[in-house]
Amino acid sequence: MARTRFAPDRGLSARMGLTMGLLAVLYVVLIGAIALAGFGWVLGVVIGLGALWLQWFFSDKLALSAMGAHEVSPADEPELHAMIDRLCALADMPKPRVAVADADLPNAFAAGRSPDRAVVCVTRGIQRRLDDRELEAVLSHELSHVAHRDVLVMTVASVVGVLAGIMTRMLLWTGLMRGGRNNNAAVMVLVVMIVAAVVYAVSFLLTRLLSRYRELAADRAGAILTGQPSTLASALTKISGEMAKIPRKDLRQAEAYNAFFFVPAMTGKVDIASLFASHPPLQKRLDQLNRISVELGQE
């Protein structure tokens, strides 16, 4: 964690370390399976390092582009910059770049590989729906992600799942090309595809578990920094309620980025998939904020 006044979280640090270690093992297993299938270590390593490099250096730009967001200067958004200036001074941390997405979806997210390279983005929808105190509470939540460096871990963690998906498609195409001439090659490709599918499933589960915990950690750290957990609870309740008013088409388009959002873009469907949600249940987040209010001596 970077040296800031955000409350440290040993549980989050331990989970990030464990997740990265297990994902490294999965990566080695995937590359090894590809090599044993006759595709060579070089191909796997090149693709793996290429995917990691892209995510490492361009994750912030990719996130902003996906949301149709753009960076804004203090002259463009003086009030937004003033909020982040105050919070960064309070937390004693570098100020990230500031961006705004021209979307009605009420949300916010942080991206970037380090506190010095981070960007915090809010949508027009969240600016319209929250008052200044609520928006500042949300920004404190997002800045805690930057300070804890869990944005970086989530970005790197997603590489293994992406890589497994790329490898599966590539091997499927190669297997179809070879299958007619070499049955053994087709069998090996099938085995590697199964390994890739398992790696993807395990990496998906690991990143979801980490994502759910890191949201609770950011709620806690952000609320303690500002001393206003009830304000963050108000913002959470208001945004969650407003999600129901967003067109389903817009929600489906944004669901791919749920792991980085303040509140997930949910279509309202409740099924077994909720067990693998990127965020903890709303009530669990509100209960935690209520406990923090009690600890701080607030009603």
UniProtKB/TrEMBL annotation:
Encoding gene, per UniProt annotation: htpX
Binding, Zn(2+): H141, H145, E215
UniProt cofactor(s): Zn(2+)
Active site: E142
Similarity comment: family membership: Belongs to the peptidase M48B family.
Span of domain Peptidase M48: 74-291
HAMAP family: Pept_M48_protease_HtpX
Keywords, ordered alphabetically: Cell membrane, Hydrolase, Membrane, Metal-binding, Metalloprotease, Protease, Stress response, Transmembrane, Transmembrane helix, Zinc
Signal sequence interval, chain numbering: none
Cofactor note: Binds 1 zinc ion per subunit.
E.C. no: 3.4.24.-
Subcellular location: Cell membrane
One GO MF term: zinc ion binding
Database matches in InterPro entries: HtpX_protease, Pept_M48_protease_HtpX, Peptidase_M48
GO biological process: proteolysis
PANTHER family: PROTEASE HTPX, PROTEASE HTPX HOMOLOG
Membrane topology designation: Multi-pass membrane protein
Main subcellular localisation: membrane
Annotated TM spans: 12-35, 151-173, 185-206
Top-level division of the source organism's lineage: Bacteria
Name of the protein described by the UniProt record: Protease HtpX homolog
Gene Ontology, cellular component aspect: plasma membrane
